[in-house]
Write a structure and sequence with these properties.
Layout (H helix, E strand, L loop, with lengths): L1 E2 L3 E6 L2 E6 L10 H16 L5 E6 L11 H4 L11 H24 L4 E5 L2 E3 L1 H7 L3 E5 L3 E3 L13 H8 L2 H10 L2 E3 H6 L5 E3 L2 H16 L3 H16 L2 H15 L2 H13 L16
Parallel strand pairs: 3-4, 4-5, 5-7, 6-8, 7-10
Antiparallel strand pairs: 1-2, 2-3, 8-9
Length: 280
């Protein structure tokens, strides 16, 4: 078990479980959050420590969103001695850094499943929108809170949410700051399923994670890459890209192992993803 300021991490049976662990603060996101999350995810991904990532939370709410100390602690947001244009450019870079903290979920080679209880507010919507699959408890709700404090959501909500649910719903949530209940979130496709309790939800998510972890990791990684690419490109581009991918990643030995395991009525044994070489 690894603990940081904002998270607990455990890795077992090829599943990395990242838990938001500041229930006393409703799991709000202070500056440490934005550094610790990508560090954890990159370490799992770069060193192929798991085949699936599960994210859950503690306490009444999944997260209350960004802690305002991120903007008020004076580190790098309002550069002293700079004019308004220089400060604006620096603030843009600051926002891009925050966006990168969630981009790591989208870019990770393994799927990221998230289990949401209670409120998923403000930056929480940016957070879960970057995950592969979302589940929620019956009492969960989603809220683009930024409009209620006089700002535009900027860490990923709109680019991703518009790909996940009908645009009219995005506009209603964005303009009015209303809560989206879990049941309606399921109806419009933001979450796959809802559950009466957090325990039931986590049991389901962990069962699914175990099933995913049993598949060929290269094929799972390829599927995630193809889905993300198709989301962001035309059909023609997607077809061309998967043809190119298969030219290099098609893996007959993995297929033969899947066939043999089925015939022999045993669990297949696949090689893990290879660690990434980040330094020369």
């Amino acid at each position: 078990m690894t603990e940081t300021t904002c998270f607990k991490l455990s890795i077992e049976n090829n599943i990395a479980h990242i838990v938001l662990n500041r229930p006393e603060a409703m799991n709000s996101m202070p500056r440490a959050f934005w550094n610790e999350l990508p560090a954890l995810v990159h370490d799992i991904d770069d060193h192929a420590k798991a085949r699936v990532i599960v994210i859950s939370s503690t306490g009444k709410h999944f997260t209350a969103g960004m802690d305002l100390s991120v903007f008020t602690d004076g580190e790098g947001v309002n550069a002293s001695g700079a004019d308004e244009y220089s400060r604006a450019e620096a603030f843009r870079q600051f926002v891009l850094t925050l966006q990168g903290s969630f981009n790591c979920l989208d870019n990770a080679r393994m799927p990221v499943l998230v289990a949401i209880q209670g409120g998923c507010i403000g930056g929480g919507v940016d957070f879960v929108s970057a995950c592969d699959i979302r589940y929620a408890t019956d009492d969960a709700f989603f809220q683009i809170q930024e409009i209620n404090i006089g700002m535009t959501a900027d860490v990923g909500t709109f680019p991703r949410l518009c790909k996940l649910i009908p645009e009219g719903w995005v506009r209603e949530l964005a303009y009015a700051g209303r809560r989206l209940p879990a049941q309606r979130a399921k109806e419009i496709g933001l979450v796959n399923e809802t559950f009466p309790t957090q325990e039931a939800m986590l049991a389901h998510v962990m069962d699914l994670a175990a099933e995913i972890a049993s598949k060929a990791p290269v094929a799972v990684a390829g599927s995630k890459r193809m889905i993300n690419y198709a989301r962001d490109h035309s059909i023609a581009d997607g077809l061309d890209y998967i043809a190119t991918w298969q030219a290099g990643m098609f893996a007959p030995p993995h297929m033969m192992e899947a066939f043999a395991a089925k015939a022999q009525k045993r669990a297949p044994k696949f090689a893990d993803l290879a660690p990434l070489k980040k330094k020369m």
